Amino acid sequence: MSLVGPVKGDTYYNMEVVVDEHHESTDEKRISINTPDRARKSIHFSPDGDNFSYDWCMVFKVPKNPWEDIPQTDAIMVLDALKNAKLKTKMYRSVPGDEVYLLIGASEGRLEREAERSDYDLLLDPERTIAHGVKKGCILAVATENRDEYSNLITTRLWEGIYARYNPELRDLYTKYNEDGYHHSDSVFRAVDRIKLTLSIIEAEVKLGGAGLAIGKLLKQKHSHLSAFFPLHDADKKSLLELKWLSWRSLFSQPLQEIRDYFGEEIGLYFSFLRIFIPYLWYLCLVEFYNRMLLAITLIGIIFAVFL
For residues 105 and 88, is the Cβ–Cβ distance under 8 A? Predict the structure, then answer.
C-alpha cells in the first residue's frame, strides 16, 4: 500500500514508506523511506543538522481510489504547509496499509524562535538568575548572595518557581533539561514545552511563520483524509513515570513534579488539587459511617421494642 497524492496538474506519484520496528533509539523509531526520484524531489526530509525529535502525529486515511479528487486537506498539502513553517516531518504506513502516519517535530532553533514570538514562559534557574541579578545590582539578589545573621530568611528558595518570557539574549538564565537524550541535550524546553510550541507553529498564521493549519476544522471536514491528530508519548519517560505513579507509595505521595513536566501544568494542577481534596473526604466518610451506625442501632432498637 502507498500514499497517493498530487504533485503537479494531473500527475500522481506513489510514496512507499517502510518502518524498521527492530531498531529504536531513546526518542524515536528508525524509519527508512523508499521513494521514487520525483517523489524525493517534491518532499524534502533531510535534516539540517539541528537537534529535533518527533512530538506530534497526524493520521491520514489512504484513498481507495487513487484517481479521486483529493481535497486541500490531503497529506501532501499538509506536508507543504509544515515544510514552509520549517517543521520536520516523516511518514510511514500502518500495518494494514489503510492509514499513513505523519510524524511532526521542530528543531531547537525553531522552537526558540516560536517561544520568542509567542512570549512563551520558561522556568528560570535560581542560581543563574541570582548571579545575573547581582551583576545588575538587584537588591534582593545581592541580599540573597551575601546574606548574614540579620537576613537568614532570604534564601535561594525565594527564587524557585519563577517563570519569565523567553528572551534569546538571556538564554543562560533558564533551567536546562538534559534528560531527553542526545536530541535535546542542554535544552531549555521540557517535552511538554516542545509539544505546546510545535502545536503553536502548526496553527499559527502563515504571515507569522506558522503552517496556518486549523486542525480542529480539518478533522471535522466531511471529505478530509485527516482522521486523527495527537502528541506522541516518550516511552522512556512514560515508563519512569509509571514506576513512580502506579505504586502503593502514590497513595500517600504522588510524583506531582514528574506529572507536571510530562503532561503539563493543567494536569499537574488537577492532581495537586486531588492530593489536598481526597484526604478531607476521609473525614466525611467517618462522619457518614458514624451516622449510618447510629441509624442501624436505632432501627435494631425499634425492632426489639416492637417484637419483644
Answer: yes
Cα 143 from Cα 141, distance rounded (Å): 5
Which residue type is seen at 114? Answer: E
| CB atoms closer than 10 angstroms to residue 176 | 14
Distance in angstroms (rounded) separating the CA atoms of residues 31 and 18: 7
Q: Domain spans of the chain? A: 3-106+191-232, 111-184, 246-307
Are 13 and 83 spatial neighbours (Cβ–Cβ below 8 Å)? no
d(CA 76, CA 93): 14
Q: How far is CA 218 from the centre of its chain?
A: 21
- This prediction's pTM: 0.71
Highest mean pLDDT among 11-25, 41-55, 261-275: 261-275
Q: Which residues does 175 contact at the CB level (< 8 Å), separation at least 6?
A: 122, 123, 124, 125, 188
Please state, in angstroms and rounded to a whole number, the distance separating the CA atoms of residues 122 and 197: 12
Edge-first strand listing for the sheet containing 226-231:
88-93, 99-105, 54-61, 226-231
C-alpha closest to that of 85 among 65, 68, 107: 107
What's the sign of the alpha-carbon dihedral 224, 225, 227, 229?
Answer: negative
What does the alpha-carbon distance between residue 23 and residue 241 come to, in Å, rounded to a whole number? Answer: 23
Residues 6+ apart with CB under 8 A from 172: 128
Q: Which of 128-132, 162-166, 291-295, 300-304 has the lowest mean pLDDT?
A: 300-304
CA distance 203 to 41: 26
Residue 31: DSSP 8-state = E
208-246 b/e (C-beta count within 10 Å ≥ 16 → b): ebbbebebeebeeeeebbbeebebbebeebeeebeeeee
Beta-ladder partners of 177: 187
